[in-house]
Amino acid sequence: MGNPESGDAVEAREKILETAARLFAEHGYENTSISQVARAAQVSKALIFWYFDTKEKLYRSALRKTLEPYIIAIDDLDGRDEQGQIERLIELFAEFVNENVYSVRFFLSMVLQGEHQPDDVIRRVSELYRVFRNLIADIIAGGQSRGVFGQHCNPQLDAAMIMAALDGVLVQNFLSTEFVHDAGEMIAHLKASLLPRLLRADH
Amino acid sequence: MGNPESGDAVEAREKILETAARLFAEHGYENTSISQVARAAQVSKALIFWYFDTKEKLYRSALRKTLEPYIIAIDDLDGRDEQGQIERLIELFAEFVNENVYSVRFFLSMVLQGEHQPDDVIRRVSELYRVFRNLIADIIAGGQSRGVFGQHCNPQLDAAMIMAALDGVLVQNFLSTEFVHDAGEMIAHLKASLLPRLLRADH
DNA sequence: GTCTATATACAGATAGAC
DNA sequence: GTCTATCTGTATATAGAC
């Protein structure tokens, strides 16, 4: 599996990629120079260009690497009622964001600033988001036809609302210092606030 | 009030400031060069340094200028019941964000990225936010003592929740293309979802 | 106050030795 | 593959004429 001439060829490439992914996520595209990456990865600038040709391509490769752990395993939804399933999805989403704070924060600020948004990366992220929302919408629709949720529910809109609230809590969490309540408490409150409204009994 | 030598001295300074504020908000600190600002404001680079010494100081001055319209007039709250007051505050917040989309979006991405955050600017913005949240918390607490809202309410936490949901809706709105529902519809849904829970009757 | 011309630094990128 | 040395562009900032 190794190269004939040099044993750690792949490792240098990997180290550049890891370092670049970290630095880009921490300081953004324009705030990160090839020289910085080279210094931090302990290689020469030229080597970075040897592997990645341009700064732009390095950036794209680094982002793609960052996306690798972006998978949410939705396993244990069976055996729960509709409300329980949605609650579990909310928890999974919060956990996911928590495990990827730095990169999620970075993607968010990337999209907000609107510059240097490789299309494929944006697509992956927003697809993940949409899958999640549709999952919730489907559960609501299913619960509706089973008579658990009322006809006043609008699956797509209610799912979007839950996601929005979730986003808000997590964004506030990013801004931490100034925003008092901790995420766990807020997530619990979110469930208590939004889910009862869906049930058929009241309204 | 004019200078003896040059009639439009102040206007050049103002033009630089306006232009810088716009460009910084559109492209960020690192993506905006003094040369760009000079070209867009139709003055020489040197003049910018004459007035503002360094790029950093120009940035700070531009941000301070951006903050000037950051005032929310809370006038017509009297004559409404508690729920009506909160609904009105939600509308005011949404209107405010809508009238300042570009700069709000910019401040958000600035805080998220964590770099180039002049302390005084951050303070102003987060103070505005806190005032708003406390206003809602006070209304909830007042409604509680008047018996309109139930004892299960937690004024600070419920206010934070409302603000979080509001944030989420508005952030989703920034990301527009990928996120289906329009802000007005979501705001209406937000009121319908969160406020009934506060009332004493149910629960 | 406003300009042109310039100093200085560092960015991205290339050439070529090993 | 990995390096040193260098090219070229552009950034912030300054000097000095008007």
Q: Would you summarize the structure shown here?
A:
The structure is a homodimer of 203-residue chains. By secondary structure, chain A is an all-alpha fold.
Question: Could you explain the architecture of this structure?
Answer:
- Chain A contains 9 helices and no strands.
- With 203 residues, chain A is mostly helical.
- Chain A folds into 2 domains: 7-62, Orthogonal Bundle (Arc Repressor Mutant, subunit A); 74-199, Tetracycline Repressor, domain 2.
- Chain A is elongated and about 65 Å long.
- Chains A and B meet through helix 6, helix 7, helix 8 and helix 9 of A and helix 6, helix 7, helix 8 and helix 9 of B.
- The first copy, chain A, binds a DNA duplex (18 and 18 nucleotides) through residues 3, 5-6, 9, 12, 33-35, 43-47, 49-51, 53-55.
The SSE order of chain A reads: HHHHHHHHH
The tally of strands of chain A reads 0
- What is Rg of chain A? 21 Å
Q: What count of structural domains of chain A?
A: 2
The most extensive interface, with participating residues per chain, is: A-B, 48 and 47 residues
Mean pLDDT of chain A: 90
Structural class of chain A: mainly alpha
Q: Fraction of residues of chain A in helices?
A: 55-70%
How much of the polypeptide of chain A forms β-strand, as a percent range?
under 5%
CATH homology superfamily of the largest domain in chain A:
Tetracycline Repressor, domain 2
Oligomeric category: homodimer
Shape of chain A: elongated
Looking at CATH, which topology of the largest domain in chain A would you report?
Tetracycline Repressor, domain 2
For the largest beta-sheet of chain A, the strand count, sense and barrel status come to:
none
The number of helices of chain A is 9
CATH class of the largest domain in chain A: Mainly Alpha
Contiguous uncertain segments of 5+ residues of chain A: 1-7
CATH architecture of the largest domain in chain A: Orthogonal Bundle
Terminal CA distance of chain A: 66 Å
